[in-house]
Design a protein that fits this description.
The chain contains eight helices and no strands. Helix 1 runs antiparallel to helix 3 and helix 3 runs parallel beside helix 5. 25% of the residues are buried. By secondary structure, it is mainly α. The protein has one domain. It is a multi-pass membrane protein.
């Protein structure tokens, strides 16, 4: 039986999602911009795995719409990508949580690739061109930074919060 969400959990949830959204729109040098990790997606995936009682799909959709507005992408592009990603993570939660962190990281790689593929596909359908190989860098950088994000988020969580 899962424990009820505490006020601190909700605060951490909302603040981390807001911080992830802000960090996603921070200007990076052109050489690093293509390899930016998918921070909002990683944070949503973290919370979906760690706190299953929190709502996930509606925040994923809303953050996706905010990303579409802030990044100037076709309306719904990131919303669809985040919805599919979080649906996969929530559906396969029992699969991901039984593995150690390094195996869960490997198991999440297809989810990041699916998200990048959806962005690539929608951009192609709307005639937004970009280098094909650069499209897959976020999946790689997200996979490499997932263990770091997981570890930092575990340190930030309340010390008394155990499953």
């Amino acid at each position: 039986m899962s424990r009820p969400s505490t006020r601190a959990t909700w605060t951490a949830y909302l603040l981390s999602l807001l911080l992830g959204l802000v960090l996603q729109i921070v200007q990076l040098p052109e050489s690093l911009a293509a390899a930016r990790p998918l921070l909002p997606a990683m944070l949503l995936a973290y919370w979906a795995l760690r706190e299953p009682q929190l709502p996930m799909l509606l925040p994923a959709f809303l953050i996706g719409l905010l990303m579409d507005v802030l990044l100037g992408t076709p309306m719904g592009q990131h919303a669809i990508g985040l919805l599919v990603l979080i649906y996969l993570v929530v559906s396969l939660r029992s699969f991901f949580i039984v593995f150690p962190l390094w195996q869960a990281t490997l198991a999440l790689i297809p989810a990041w690739v699916i998200y990048c593929f959806l962005m690539y596909w929608i951009d192609g359908a709307t005639h937004h061109t970009a280098d094909r190989w650069l499209r897959w860098l976020p999946a790689l950088s997200t996979s490499l930074s997932w263990p770091l994000l997981w570890s930092v988020m575990e340190l930030i969580r309340q010390p008394g919060e155990e499953e």
